[in-house]
Amino acid sequence: MFRALFRRNCILNKGADSTMHAYRSHTCNDLRKENVGDTVKLSGWVHRKRDHGGVLFIDLRDNYGFTQLVLDTDSKAFDTAEALRSESVITIDGRVKARSDETVNKDLPTGDIEVFVDAIEIQSAAQELPLPVFGETEYPEDIRLKYRFLDLRRDRLHKNILLRSNVIASLRRRMIDQGFTEFQTPILTASSPEGARDFLVPARQHPGKFYALPQAPQQFKQLIMVSGFDRYFQIAPCFRDEDARADRSPGEFYQLDMEMSFVTQEDVFNAIEPVIAGVFREFSDKKIDGGAFPRIPFAESMMKYGNDKPDLRNPLIIQDVTEHFRGSGFGIFASMIENGAVVRAIPAPGAGAKSRKFFDGTNDWAKKEGFAGLGYIKITDGEAGGPIAKNLGEERTQAIIDQLGLGDNDGVFFACDKEAGAAKLAGVARTKVGEDLGLIPDDEFKFCWIVDYPMFEYDEDNKKIDFSHNPFSMPQGGMEALENEDPLSILAYQYDIVCNGIELSSGAIRNHRPDIMIKAFGIAGYSEEVVEEEFGGMLNAFKYGAPPHGGIAPGVDRIVMLLANEPNIREVILFPMNQRAEDLMMQAPSEVSPKQLRELHIRTVEPPKKDGE
RNA sequence: GCGGGUGUAGCUCAGUUGGUUAGAGUAUCGGCCUGUCACGCCGAGGGUCGCGGGUUCGAGCCCCGUCACUCGCGCCA
After folding, report:
1. Which nucleotide C1' is nearest A216 CA?
2. Between the CA of residue A409 and those of A317, A340, A350, what are the distances in Å?
3. Nearest nucleotide to A192 by CA–C1' distance?
4. In which element (H, E) is residue A148 found?
5. Protein residue nearest nucleotide B1, by CA to C1'
6. How far apart are CA A289 and CA A443, in angstroms?
7. I need a surface site. Which of A14, A207, A276, A585 has the fewest CB within 10 A?
8. Alpha-carbon distance A45 to A153, whole Å?
9. What is the per-residue pLDDT for A193?
């Protein structure tokens, strides 16, 4: 496909005679048997050189592929070629020759031919490389980031970035085909009190005031709906000043942001599911279930998987076994239950055949992760063993085994804590046990929707009710629910797409009613004045005729990461920052001149020294 | 902010119980080589063992601190 595109340009640019172009008549992936005898001009990088004294081979590389160049002492360019260093950029004139049967390279599309070089022009000589382009070796990330342009020449990263481009093109096409329209929204906007930390930009014309980079075009896309555009999408840059993770780049990332008017949750699902499933089918060979993504209510996900981003490739299901421990001889759990704790069981099929070290090791791992620890029962040839089984007694142990359907050589781990803590520990233990027992297949994508998120949650730190996710979501039951129900039991029309344990996107049916919005914010402790002040732009818009609307925003980087089978999001971003949000190649962030600061009415204050000194 | 891992030649790594002059591959430079596609052969240069301190007759190795990178926690409407 690329070649076809490139050729079209080439023909436009170079006219009838193919040797007229200044740099190339063909790319490094073009020449075949049929070209034998042709006079050609090629340009590219010296990928690899093999010098046999009287004969010299050069693998010439460009974006499209490789062509083997050959020179012998008959060539006037021989001495120049011999002195070339890897990664130098050259243009050559030569003649296409057939390779003999023994010397054909079946691994190369151009492997039937080679080009005998008559003349070489060095376009750009390369210094000794800090990072070799040839080969698959791993290199320290700071060097890779500093010399990103070299790293990007390497096969794997180069392919990832091209994949990313193709994925984005496919997403755009799929959205446009469904009647969505792409719009751009501002990059310099207002700071919003909710959500992550903002990146701020000082406003020169307004001393003491700041723009913020958008954490997402959330309010703008809702305003686009209010403006009557019906179906919006954008490959939208989003900026959040939060610390990095393997699947979270610091600073900035991209979403396939979309919003629709006059829709229910079902309509959003029906619009986005084929886009996501389609793009995964288009760009991956991994197995993908047909049909609709399963829908899992938030509460069920927390119970069965211990989090709201379950990896459904993992067959293990967590169960509540609190009642079997209540008032039992296993005193630690029994007394914790009296104080409001619950017990969650994580089955470990086949683990009973493993040594005690497996169970103790998993317990040690949990402690290292900062949890109280994991209890366990180990069943060997039908005999339940371990400290818990001993203290719990035969009857209760058997009841647990029956409930979980455990076999003669299985195991089970127990997480005991207050509900949220137990769910969390059980969730990470489920993943750990699944991985250790080799239960997670690597050759499939398992999608699901997480639905029915709670609208509010109790904020332990501030001892108040707060929004649990997006404050702009419509509460299920609307105004009536807000007025009559326990806020903590109210659900929202809020949903996530999860794939293989990675949160791919979240979305919601929005609250387009000013009265319901003010009521919802009131429950979370924000006065009408505060809402007017902070969200006035959007709230005001809702007073002049706002359509019911909703949308979602799948994360583009994470989609590409899954499709490229990369464990790290930086492998699918052209120029990522490191974990400390520095661009080691461009040297950002950087100091600025006093003049720039003066213009912005900014004075910097050094943080206090650690040691006093 | 906190916890784990890593840090030895440009790069990838080895380095035994603390013991003589810290090694290999690759890259670089020089020499040889007419069919390779990780070409091969011979040779050379290349080291603040991340940094600082300590223990010891003696530290790449042990201890303390610190820095860098990374993974996780916190954070992420």
Report:
1. B77
2. 18, 32, 5
3. B77
4. helix A148-151
5. A243
6. 12
7. A207
8. 10
9. 76
Cis status of the peptide bond prior to A589, with omega within 30 of 0: yes
Q: What pLDDT was estimated at residue A497?
A: 97
Measured CA to CA in angstroms, residue A583 lies from A142, A243, A573, A577 at distances of: 10, 15, 12, 5
In this structure, which amino acid lies at residue A200? L
Q: Give the residue nearest to nucleotide B7 (CA to C1').
A: A140
Q: Quickly give A133 CA vs B68 C1' distance in Å.
A: 24
Distance, C-alpha A475 to centroid of its chain: 28
E strand segments, A428-514 = 444-445, 447-451, 456-459, 464-467, 494-499, 502-509
Main-chain phi, psi angles of A292, to 5 degrees: -70, 150
* Phi, psi values for residue A12, rounded to 5°: -60, -35
**Chain B: nucleotides under 7 Å from a protein CB?**
1, 3-4, 10-13, 26-29, 32-40, 68-77
d(CA A10, CA A30): 12
Q: What is the mean pLDDT of residues A225-254?
A: 95
Distance, angstroms, CA A152 to C1' B56? 49
Quote helix, strand, coil % in chain A, to nearest 5: 35, 25, 40
What's CA A497's distance to the chain center, in Å?
12
Q: What is the ipTM of this complex?
A: 0.90
Q: Environment class of residue A79 by beta-carbon count within 10 Å: exposed (0-12), middle (13-18) or buried (19+)?
A: exposed
Query: What digits encode the pLDDT tens for the residues A339-356?
Result: 999 999 999 999 988 888
Higher pLDDT, A10 or A479: A479
Core vs surface per residue A243-255: b (16+ CB within 10 A) or e: ebeebebbbbbbb
Which residue would you say has higher pLDDT here, A144 or A5?
A: A144
Report the nucleotide nearest the CA of residue A470, measured to C1'. Answer: B77
For residue A428, the tally of other CB atoms under 10 A from its CB is 18
Query: Given the DSSP bridges, would you call strands A411-417 and A251-261 parallel, antiparallel or unpaired?
Result: unpaired
Distance A158 CA to B36 C1' (A): 26
Closest nucleotide to A145, Cα to C1': B69
Task: Pull the structure tokens for residue A225.
Answer: 């709906």
CA distances from A155 to A65, A158, A245, A277 (A): 10, 5, 25, 27
The pTM score is: 0.92
Question: Distance in angstroms, CA of A426 to C1' of B19?
Answer: 51
Q: Do A458 and A465 touch, CB atoms closer than 8 A?
A: yes
With 0-12 / 13-18 / 19 or more C-beta atoms within 10 angstroms meaning exposed / middle / buried, residue A483 is exposed
